[in-house]
Structure formats: structure tokens, C-alpha cells
Amino acid sequence: MDRRIRKAVIPVAGLGTRFLPATKAQPKEMLPLVDKPVIQYIVEEAVAAGIEQIVFVTGRHKRAIEDHFDRNLELERALEEKGKEELLNIVKHIPDIADFIYIRQKEPKGLGHAVLTAEPVVGNEPFAVLLGDDVMVSNPPAIGQLIEVYNRYRCSVIGVQEVKREEVSKYGIVGGKEIEPGVFKVDELVEKPSVEEAPSNLAISGRYILTPGIFEVLKKTPPGKGEEIQLTDALAGLSKREAIYATIMEGKRYDTGSKLGFLEATVDFALMREDLREPFLEIIKSRVREERENG
Questions:
Q1: Largest pairwise CA distance in the chain
Q2: 185 with 155: CB under 8 angstroms?
Q3: By the 8 A CB rule, do 13 and 63 touch?
Q4: CB within 8 A of 174, min separation 6: which ones?
Q5: How far apart are CA 39 and CA 175, in angstroms?
Q6: Measuring CA to CA, how many Å separate 250 from each of 106, 143, 201, 241?
Q7: For the chain, which terminus, N or C, has the lower number of CB atoms within 10 Å?
Q8: pLDDT band per the 50, 70, 90 thresholds, residue 136
Q9: Higher pLDDT, 146 or 25
Q10: Residues 138/249, Cβ–Cβ less than 8 Å
Q11: What percent of the chain has pLDDT over 70?
């Protein structure tokens, strides 16, 4: 069995109902943060961590994702004819970022089912999972931080971040013993617990390194909350067979699956751009002044 993390599974089959009507005819993952779709940031994170193959678990109406990571010869020819070399290089580079594979999740049965759908492509090797709603800004890449822990322990690793105690019911929560700074050996996983039920305030944050043993557990995991096969439930089952670790990821996480999270990411990513920062700051300051004046 190849022990390197070469493949990343990115589930993108969701309907994106929180962003309707914008997502009626386009995938939510293709919504742009300034001028780059959310999904490209996720892919670039994986590639920066050394991952070579991206496995998209897709659904109906997700063809735009496939088209984005494919060649567009007509567009390339038009850019070349107009002498727009910089844009041409950007467009031509996208399909070469990694090897892309697409496999369809035929029914929306949850994240656990989406991961299980990727088994024929992943095979008998460890792999990464990155959720398409969670954009991470960090150095080293967030998934790379998990790979570092995996390389030390050769076990599944869950990326977590600390959240306010009153917010634990929004997340999958892990509990365990800290074995080195920021790294925990997991002994409990609970999907969206109440404050009283939560074993900690360490929230699962959209990044995983999983051993292939997860597939056998997923096949036996019954539907949980929302009548979906929950990955957190399967991880709880896997923890009874083999060790699982959690590591606190350093960096800023943006939940682009929520409207406020998407807007926050849009503002921050615009401010990171040298060509946009100053004029955009002026717009923000102007709006703040107007709001204060209007009470």
C-alpha cells in the first residue's frame, strides 16, 4: 500500500440551497472570491501540500466545475489574438494544476456517502478530504499540516479549530488527550452536540486525512442526523478499530457556505490583493462614514 498522500477527495454534490437563486443554474463552489472561484482555492491548497490527484464527487448541474478545470481552446485563442498574455497564462495553467477525476454521487445521502462514493478511485491508500465550503488561509497549507501529523503517526487525522462553547452545536466535535502541542489522540466524536453533550470545543473544520479503513466502516454506518450517512459517525466507528488523531489547524478559516462567511471572505481576499486593497479600503471607509452619518 502506498503510504503517501497523493489523492484528495473534494465532495461538491450539494445543491447550495443557502445561495439560491444564485445557485439555481451554477454550482455554489463556482461562486467567485473576487475573480477566482471558491473551488479553485481548495484545489490550490491541496496541490500546495503535494497532492497530485483531485477526485471530485459531483452531482447533477455540476458540469461548470468540470469545464473550469478543463481546456477552453476558444477562449485561449481569443486571448492570444488580443495579446492578453497574462490572462492567457492564467487560463492555460488551471487544467495543469493536478490530475482531475470526476465521480458522481447519485443520491444526496450525506458527506459520509460522498466519501464512500470515491472508494473505486481512491483504492487501498490513505487520502485527503477537503470540503468545498471551507476556505483556509494558512502557511503551510491547512491540509499540509494534517499530512505532517499523518507522516508521524500513520493514522487518520482530523483538522480542528477551537470554537466558542456556545457554538459547538453547529459542528462535529472531538474529544481526546493532548499528546503533543495542538495534537490530540481522539477518544470521542459527536456530530452537532448540545453544549452539555460536547466533549470539548474542538470543532471539525473541513479537512481530513483518512486511512482506507474508513470505507468498510462507512458501508456499515447507518444514517444519522438528517437521515444522512455522517462522516463523523463513521470516524467514531473507525476509532474503535484504529487510532485517530486531531490537530488544531493554524490559519484563518472562512465558511463560504454561509452568506456572512462568504461576504467576509470576499472582503478579506480583496484586501489581500495589492491591485485592489487601497481603492477597496476607500470604498469601505466611505460606506462606514455614510452609515454613521445616517445613524
A1: 65
A2: no
A3: no
A4: 158, 160, 184, 186, 188, 189, 199, 200, 202, 204, 246
A5: 30
A6: 35, 10, 16, 29
A7: C
A8: very high
A9: 146
A10: yes
A11: 99
Spatial CA neighbour of 264 closest among 100, 137, 128, 94: 137
- Confidence label for 1 from pLDDT (cuts 50, 70 and 90): very low
State the pLDDT at residue 115.
96
Cα separation of 15 and 17, whole Å? 6
Cβ contact 232:223 at 8 Å: no
pLDDT the model gives residue 93: 94
Q: pLDDT tens digits for 187-246?
A: 988 888 888 888 999 999 999 999 999 999 999 988 877 778 889 889 989 999 999 999
Residue given cell 470545543 in the structure block:
201
CA 166 – CA 141 distance, rounded (Å): 28
pLDDT digits (tens, 9 = 90+) for 254-268: 999 999 999 999 999
Residue type, 1: M
pTM of the shown model: 0.92
